[in-house]
């Protein structure tokens, strides 16, 4: 019989090697390779003998009688999943420890249970008493959620196969689960992958929707949930700065819905509160009239979001000036700085530049370029921007301000929040509705914006 071969698996990315080495060649992390037993549960000699079973092929056109989605009752969560949980699907919720994953899912399962759906919460990390304590704090102790503190995937599947199939099962967390079919220790990539596989199979067979919780760890000691990402139907990431109350749920991958939606929550003493109007929240602590701040009219998924961009440009004493960015792409900042320097005569090479997106939001839209440039120039010139203005537009390497999509939605949100004017690309001016309720100032090139501010 063939000897069960072991391999060295990177605990960060899941790449396998046949000998130990200090650095994972796949992801570049150091000291992440751990020896794990091979995960082939069925010996090759048996596998080879099994003949294929024939099955019926279906036509693409045809009726699918799958139940529609199951809304959680939390509008912000449903927005990110694309309208609720899909029957038989598996969703991974990842995030730093302590960010509020268990809180979010306790709230979601309680709401669904109260609506009459059978929901099960399996905690592999906390004892039942702890889970109950949290529910009590949240005022949800009376919800008919079924609880267990278990870690064996076989036991969980055997238990849940009996009786009515649960509509939703939460596994908190996938890193604590283990299955008999592989020999490695719980928490290793092989275990996480095999456990996830078994649970995914159960979800497809039974029709229950399963949510796997995954901790993201930077040191690579515990298997990152990354290895599970490509196996599941959707990946949501729960983000936020530890020191701030805002939490953002972002969809990273979604087989059944959009991937650019965000859900916004606020962590309070009574759990997570949904924030249905994020612009108000992100602008709530605005420092009116100080130089270096500009309001960006952005779009997150289908929803317009206004957010304050803050820049500080200060003379540098260093040979290589500092560039520090929070909430935006640092390469994008470098590009905007280079364009300002090359085409607008704004000399920034002797200055440190600090850039921040207020409220802990992360911006990925190129449309933020114009607002970022306005904040930078305003800080350098020590001249505040008009407090009632919003900015949006992409900047090209030539210094032109390029058009962006969804102008009407951006303007509508700005008008709704009491802004009086919008600075926007010349070519999108035509998209603006005549009753926008704002005065529009179009710019064709960055030079004219700089001339206006300085
Ligand atoms: P938790 O959901 O346990 O985080 P995770 O499962 O992602 O590790 O939340 C932990 C943090 O949330 C903890 O620091 C306390 C805070 N919290 C509140 O501020 N209010 C609450 O009502 C609850 C339940 C937790
Ligand atoms: Mg937890």
TrEMBL record:
Annotated region (Lon-protease-like) at 352-454
Positions contributing to ATP binding: 95-102
Report motif location: RadA KNRFG motif. 253-257
* Domain of life where this protein originates: Bacteria
UniProt keyword DNA repair, yes or no: yes
PROSITE patterns referenced in this protein's UniProt entry, alphabetically: RECA_2
Task: Keyword check for Transport, yes or no.
Answer: no
Q: Which InterPro entries match?
A: AAA+_ATPase, DNA_repair_RadA, P-loop_NTPase, RecA_ATP-bd, Ribosomal_Su5_D2-typ_SF, Ribsml_uS5_D2-typ_fold_subgr, Rubredoxin_2
Which residues does the UniProt record annotate as the domain RecA family profile?
A: 66-216
Keywords carried by this UniProt record = ATP-binding, DNA damage, DNA repair, DNA-binding, Hydrolase, Metal-binding, Nucleotide-binding, Stress response, Zinc, Zinc-finger
The protein's role, per its UniProt record: Plays a role in repairing double-strand DNA breaks, probably involving stabilizing or processing branched DNA or blocked replication forks.
The text of the family note is: Belongs to the RecA family. RadA subfamily.
Domain characteristics, as noted in the entry: The middle region has homology to RecA with ATPase motifs including the RadA KNRFG motif, while the C-terminus is homologous to Lon protease.
Name of the protein in question: DNA repair protein RadA
């Amino acid at each position: 019989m063939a000897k069960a071969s072991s391999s060295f698996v990177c605990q960060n990315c899941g790449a396998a090697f046949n000998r130990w080495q200090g650095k994972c060649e796949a992801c570049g992390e150091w000291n992440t390779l751990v020896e794990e037993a091979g995960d082939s549960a069925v010996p090759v000699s048996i596998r080879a003998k099994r003949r294929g079973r024939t099955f019926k092929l279906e036509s693409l056109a045809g009726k699918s009688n799958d139940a529609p989605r199951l809304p959680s009752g939390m509008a912000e969560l449903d927005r990110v999943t694309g309208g609720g949980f899909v029957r038989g699907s598996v969703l991974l919720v990842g995030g730093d420890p302590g960010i509020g994953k268990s809180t979010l899912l306790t709230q979601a399962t309680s709401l669904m249970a109260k609506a009459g759906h059978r929901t099960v919460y399996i905690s592999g990390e906390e004892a039942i008493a702890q889970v109950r304590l949290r529910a009590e704090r949240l005022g949800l102790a009376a919800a008919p959620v079924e609880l267990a503190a278990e870690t064996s995937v076989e036991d969980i599947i055997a238990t849940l196969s009996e009786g009515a199939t649960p509509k939703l099962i939460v596994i908190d967390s996938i890193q604590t689960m283990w299955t008999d079919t592989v020999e490695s220790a719980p928490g290793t990539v092989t275990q996480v992958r095999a456990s996830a596989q078994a649970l995914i199979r159960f979800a497809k067979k039974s029709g229950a929707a399963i949510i796997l919780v995954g901790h993201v760890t930077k040191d690579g000691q515990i298997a990152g949930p990354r290895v599970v990402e490509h196996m599941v139907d959707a990946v949501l990431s729960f983000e936020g700065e530890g020191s701030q109350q805002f939490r953002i749920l972002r969809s990273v991958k979604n087989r059944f819905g959009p991937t650019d939606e965000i859900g916004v929550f606020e962590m309070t003493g009574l759990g997570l509160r949904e924030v249905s109007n994020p612009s108000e929240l992100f602008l709530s602590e605005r420092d009116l009239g100080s130089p270096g701040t500009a309001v960006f009219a952005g779009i997150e998924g289908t929803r317009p979001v206004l957010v304050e961009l803050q820049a500080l440009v200060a003379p540098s004493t260093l040979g290589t000036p500092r560039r520090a960015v929070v909430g935006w792409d640092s390469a994008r900042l470098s590009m905007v700085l280079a364009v300002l320097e090359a085409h607008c005569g704004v000399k920034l090479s002797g200055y440190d530049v600090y850039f921040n997106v207020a409220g802990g939001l992360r911006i990925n839209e190129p449309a933020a370029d114009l607002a970022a440039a306005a904040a930078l120039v305003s800080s350098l010139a020590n001249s505040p921007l008009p407090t009632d203005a919003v900015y949006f537009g992409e900047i090209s390497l030539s210094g032109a301000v390029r058009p962006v999509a969804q102008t009407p939605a951006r303007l509508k949100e700005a008008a709704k929040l009491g802004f009086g004017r919008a600075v926007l690309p010349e070519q999108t001016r035509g998209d603006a509705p005549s009753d926008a309720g704002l005065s529009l100032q179009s710019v064709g090139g960055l030079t004219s914006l700089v001339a206006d501010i300085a």
